[in-house]
Amino acid sequence: MANKFGYNYQTMSNPYNDFLQREDSSLADIKGASQNGKQAVDTEKEKEKSGSDKQVNSSFDVGENVIEGKSINNLRINKWIKSQNYKPNKDGFIINGKTGKAEFQKATIRGELNADDITTGTLSVAHTEADVTSDNPQLMSWLTDSNLSGYSEGTLANRPAAGTAGRYYLATDGGNNGNAVLFRDNGAAWVEASISDMADILNAIADNVGESATRKWAGESGADVTGNNTADDTNNVNGKGSTNVIYHNGTRYERADGTASAAEDLDAARNFEAVVDGNGQGDYTDIQSALDAGNTTIYLRPYSSYYSGFTITTSGVTIKGESWTSCKIGWEVIIGDGSTTYENITIENVTIEYANPGIRIKNNTQMINIEWCFISECFTAAIYIEGGKNLDIKNCFILRNNIGIKMTGSYYPYIFANRIERSDNEGIKTETGCYNSTITDNYFRYNGQTNGVSALYINSWWAIISRNTFIENRGEGIKLDEEEILVSNNYFENNNQSSAATFPAEIEIGSAETSLITGNYFLINEDFSGSDYAIYAGGFDYQNINGNTIRADRLSSNKNDAISISQDYHLIVGNSILGNWNAAITTGSVGANSVVANNMIHLY
């Protein structure tokens, strides 16, 4: 499992650190008195009625003064005494005359000294609950579960017998200087703890946080979170560069590699049930195993090789890669089984290469979303849509496939803002059985590499083709073979590079009636030997061609007409035609009952 905690505990502020490094300063070793203090007077007191002798020591009243000089046996504090290095909320300590306790930074040091200046009882350090709640509310769950044992009586002899591995004790080192040292029980003896041992302590604390974080945090209302796998809540504290994850109210927060801070890591919060990592640092090493286990939200980690393909036969599945450049799938991805209805499925931010096809969307699926994917070198098609409805393909880069996107049966597909280049055949091909396609804001270039077919081929009813760019494709920019198609506001430049089409045009209207071709811009350069026509309409009626701009830049004499139509009942109105060598508009030998009006024609 990938690391599970969104915080870098190696750099977490810890009230123990300064205390562990500070030399043992016994509270009874406060020496001398300030010049403003009262001079001590040693007197002999009478014996108690019990007959026993009692030493009576001189008393000193101290305000806010630094005490220097010889040690004193009895000290009365009016307010407090500060250590010389005391800085508020930072360094040193004070002795609080009101509470009788030593206070270090925001913590409280509790303990007692006997007449021989030896610590008795337990000397401990604890944050106040108010401090923790305000500064680090997520730590409340383990505030009382410290992994450090108390500093018991301050000597080696006062520790319990060794034999329980993993315990830690703070005690004097037994040498001449009496420094406090952290010791570790190795199961047989107490040994001085090393830096790596301290990392183990942090590990244990981190584990405890993960297990507690499935419960509600301090200050939060509502029921505890249930259903999270606490076995997942383990962490290898290895610093920045790991992927740390923490659960909070059922949301999985992830830290990605190389981010600068835990705050930035939390910005990448995602609701994922499982992490797939081919390197073995996740819940699963392959995507199909994560799906078979019933996970519906799957986060894909970078992997140096290729992930295997998979089949989704569950609704509501989301598979998202951390980086499309390093989350690669080398086999076919199948959505649906062709008979059962599956819906609300998303594949995002991955690369799919060398598959046949890259993604296959079967019949009876609906609300399928493919976005931000790179799909390349796939047979049949990068994306093959056999059926379904309300399918979205957005922001993908589709490069060097047999066909970019092939649709043989679909209702309401929405194809938006994709870059489709260097397909052997069509960039997008829709066939009979598709209805109400919307193809908008896509970029087509160098498609039709093998056979010179069109970049976009439409053989389906009621399509909208808008705001696309077609540049230097080997065949036509668009070929229409079905009725009631809207082609608006597209840009065409120097298509038909192969001149393989029978009627080489930027737009060829074949077996189609009632097309509306409007607001498009055509640019055909003088030295280009491709398209003979900007718009060619063949043997069907009722074409509406209006508001287009055709700039031919002095086409050579072997070129034909800017707009050429045949058959009847056409409307050709309001077009601007600049620089065509031959006829600007021709209606052929038929062309009855057509309207040609208000066109602006400027010939060189």
From TrEMBL:
It comes from candidate division MSBL1 archaeon SCGC-AAA382N08. SUPFAM superfamilies: Pectin lyase-like. It holds the Pfam family Beta_helix. Residues 226-242 have a biased composition (Polar residues). InterPro entries: Beta_helix, PbH1, Pectin_lyas_fold, Pectin_lyase_fold/virulence. This is Right handed beta helix domain-containing protein. Residues 41-52 have a biased composition (Basic and acidic residues). Residues 23-60, 220-242 are annotated as: Disordered. It comes from the Archaea. Residues 341-480 form the Right handed beta helix domain.
